[in-house]
Design goal:
Radius of gyration: 14 Å
Shape: elongated
Length: about 70
């Protein structure tokens, strides 16, 4: 069965396991305005899957750079 993460657990997972700090408050804001990881609702609680968090984090990363003067495409 799929494991689901609360906002707090999702924030901790992204920070500790992926090394990409995302605050719980940021996730709350993104639920309202959009642009965050895909989520589900369980009763009134928002929950995330690990796959959704991983995919969202990957989508936010830039391409690899070899130096700081490279332009974003």
């Amino acid at each position: 069965m799929t494991k689901f993460f609360t906002k707090k657990q999702a924030s901790n997972y992204m920070t500790a396991e992926l090394g990409l700090p995302v605050a719980e408050k940021t996730l709350s804001k993104l639920i309202t305005i959009g642009g965050g990881p895909e989520f589900h609702k369980f009763n009134k609680r928002v929950v995330y899957t690990q796959t959704a968090l991983d995919e969202w984090a990957k989508s936010r990363l830039s391409k690899p750079h070899k130096n700081s003067s490279e332009q974003e495409a």
